[in-house]
Amino acid sequence: MSSLKDKNIIVTGASGGIGNSIVEKLNQNGANILATGTRIEKLEELKEKFNNIKILKFDISQHDKIEEFIENATKELGGSLDCIVNNAGITKDNLTIRMSLEEWSKVININLTSTFLMCKYSIKKMLKNKSGKIINITSVVGHTGNVGQANYTASKAGIVAMSKSLAIEYAKKNINVNCISPGFISTAMTDQIDEKFKETIIAKIPSNRLGKPEDIANAVNFLSSDQSDYINGETLHVNGGMYLG
């Protein structure tokens, strides 16, 4: 098991199922964690469960506040930043001819532009440390496309390309930028999917099951550890064989 003792890590989207699991796994391995999200009650539940973590409510759609957030989060962690896990994101699904500009723009602005800014200001902190890890959570549909998700798939594909560029720019500064691309994971969101549709999805997965949030957390744990120091600009696919990139 890889140790993250004394590693300062920010986790965005921490109030959701996958975010919860990421926080739990990193906490088990000794990381100093600042968990952030928009639902303070969920963050407080996390803090109650893991009383050694720090929480900070923040909406990543506030682009003009992201630099301040990174500054405040880093101070909460003791003044340095070793890793950020950009897990927050939204969906606004619709068929293309029905998709409004607002639906397109909101998803792109939060999923892609906000992730870019979180990376930008995190890198500024990591340059002072002369090392760092950035882990961006994308999606299998960013590689395959998906009906009704032109905005979401574009945002997730954009994160992959952006991460490769950042990896090239900052590799010599000992900063690694990688992506994790989840397939269909069993969360509160997928629990709401119609059972027949869920069966159709599972039929496309060679492993014949949905993934678990812990599957993503295990991948995050690896990429945030020293064991991944020579991995940069890559996308780790965690999808049960649904997409072989």
From TrEMBL:
NADP(+) binds at T38, N87, Y152, T153, A154, S155, K156, I185. Its EC number is 1.1.1.100. Pathway: Lipid metabolism; fatty acid biosynthesis. It comes from the Bacteria. It catalyses: a (3R)-hydroxyacyl-[ACP] + NADP(+) = a 3-oxoacyl-[ACP] + NADPH + H(+). GO terms for molecular function: 3-oxoacyl-[acyl-carrier-protein] reductase (NADPH) activity; NAD binding. Coiled coil: none annotated. Keywords: Fatty acid biosynthesis, Fatty acid metabolism, Lipid biosynthesis, Lipid metabolism, NADP, Oxidoreductase. SUPFAM superfamilies: NAD(P)-binding Rossmann-fold domains. The active site is at Y152. Pfam families: adh_short_C2. One of its GO terms (biological process) is fatty acid biosynthetic process. The keyword NADP applies. PANTHER family: 3-OXOACYL-(ACYL-CARRIER-PROTEIN) REDUCTASE (PTHR42879), 3-OXOACYL-[ACYL-CARRIER-PROTEIN] REDUCTASE FABG (PTHR42879:SF2). Homotetramer. Belongs to the short-chain dehydrogenases/reductases (SDR) family. Catalyzes the NADPH-dependent reduction of beta-ketoacyl-ACP substrates to beta-hydroxyacyl-ACP products, the first reductive step in the elongation cycle of fatty acid biosynthesis. This is 3-oxoacyl-[acyl-carrier-protein] reductase. The gene is fabG.
